[in-house]
């Protein structure tokens, strides 16, 4: 792999697992993400091996909550370090680990006063991702914000791929990003290109799921309606996924991409092609 390897070992150490769990997870995650194992091993095998080690390490008692919070934080931190223009291999391996976990029969654990299936529910993953969503860039042209933008692009790609792979059902994150990028005024060119790229990631990797939501046009309760409200540019728009918003998104993608960078323009074109194919 031509891309620089990700320092998975340091990220595992920062996650503050116990020393024995760290010793088990670090080499397997490194093999899955950086393809550092024997060349005869496939990505699927490496992802499955990492998932098996995670399953074995996860407590089935009150310690499960802390372990899961550390685990999801670790996987999210790894995803942020996989560049958006990386090939699909490393981010695909990370998604593969989550998908392998979701397919496991791990029994139940009590989290926040409720019983959850350990792996089919992936408890706390949504909560940890919601916390990560506070990393939205400021678009202030600072060096720090440039790094923040790069991580934001990678995080959205990871979340979108998990939705598209049916590993998670967090359509709310997709709608929030599409609203921020396509239904609100954008302060500068950096914001425009970033929002075009993130919107495109959601459409390219999870467009089928999003369009199904549009066609279903589900009824929302008051809390959902507030959380999934339209942006200020969509006058008279309704909350949630609906055909009006889908049509508006297509229009905005075309408008914004006209003056975008070559990278954002090319990615947006692919997203619009996906939208056209879904409507056909």
Question: Which short descriptors sum up this protein?
Answer:
280 residues, mainly alpha, 2 domains, two-stranded antiparallel ribbon
Average of pLDDT: 95
* Largest sheet: number of strands, sense, barrel closure: 2 strands, antiparallel
Strand proportion: under 5%
Q: Which regions contain 5 or more consecutive residues with pLDDT less than 50?
A: none
Major sheet: arrangement of strands: 1-2
Could you outline the blueprint of secondary structure elements for this entry?
Layout: H1 8-14, H2 19-34, H3 43-57, H4 64-80, H5 88-102, E1 108-111, E2 114-117, H6 125-132, H7 143-164, H8 171-182, H9 189-216, H10 222-227, H11 243-257, H12 262-279
Antiparallel strand pairs: 1-2
Helix pairs in contact: 1-2, 2-3, 3-5, 4-6, 5-7, 7-8, 7-9, 8-9, 9-11, 9-12, 11-12
Structure in words:
It is built from twelve helices and two strands; from the N terminus they run αααααββααααααα. Helices cover 64% and strands 3% of the residues. The mean pLDDT is 95. Strand 1 (108-111) and strand 2 form a beta hairpin. It has helices at 8-14, 19-34, 43-57, 64-80, 88-102, 125-132, 143-164, 171-182, 189-216, 222-227, 243-257, 262-279, and strands spanning 108-111, 114-117. A two-stranded antiparallel sheet has the order 1-2. It folds into two domains: 1-135, no CATH class; 142-280, no CATH class.
């Amino acid at each position: 792999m031509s891309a620089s390897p990700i320092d998975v070992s340091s990220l595992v150490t920062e996650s503050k697992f116990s020393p024995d769990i760290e010793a088990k997870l670090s080499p397997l995650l490194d093999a899955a993400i950086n393809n550092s194992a024997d060349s005869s091993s496939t990505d699927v095998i490496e992802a499955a091996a990492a998932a098996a080690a995670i399953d074995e390490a996860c407590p089935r008692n009150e310690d499960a909550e802390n372990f899961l919070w550390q685990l999801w934080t670790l996987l999210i931190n790894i995803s942020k370090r996989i560049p958006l223009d990386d090939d699909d291999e490393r981010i695909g391996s990370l998604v593969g680990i989550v998908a392998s976990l979701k397919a496991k029969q791990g029994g139940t654990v009590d989290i926040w006063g409720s019983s959850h299936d350990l792996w089919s529910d992936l408890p706390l993953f949504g909560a940890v991702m919601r916390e990560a969503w506070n990393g939205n860039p400021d678009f202030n042209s600072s060096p720090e914000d440039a790094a923040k933008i790069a991580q934001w692009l990678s995080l959205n790609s990871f979340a979108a791929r998990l939705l598209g792979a049916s590993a998670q059902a967090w359509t709310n994150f997709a709608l929030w990003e599409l609203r921020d990028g396509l239904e609100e005024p954008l302060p500068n060119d950096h914001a425009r290109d970033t929002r075009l790229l993130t919107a495109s990631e959601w459409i390219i990797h999870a467009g089928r799921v999003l369009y199904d939501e549009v066609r279903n046009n589900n009824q929302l309760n008051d809390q959902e309606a507030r959380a999934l409200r339209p942006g200020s540019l969509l006058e008279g728009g309704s909350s949630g996924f609906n055909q009006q918003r889908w049509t508006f998104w297509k229009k905005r993608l075309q408008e914004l991409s006209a003056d975008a960078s070559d990278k954002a323009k090319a990615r947006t074109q692919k997203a619009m092609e996906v939208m056209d194919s879904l409507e056909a």
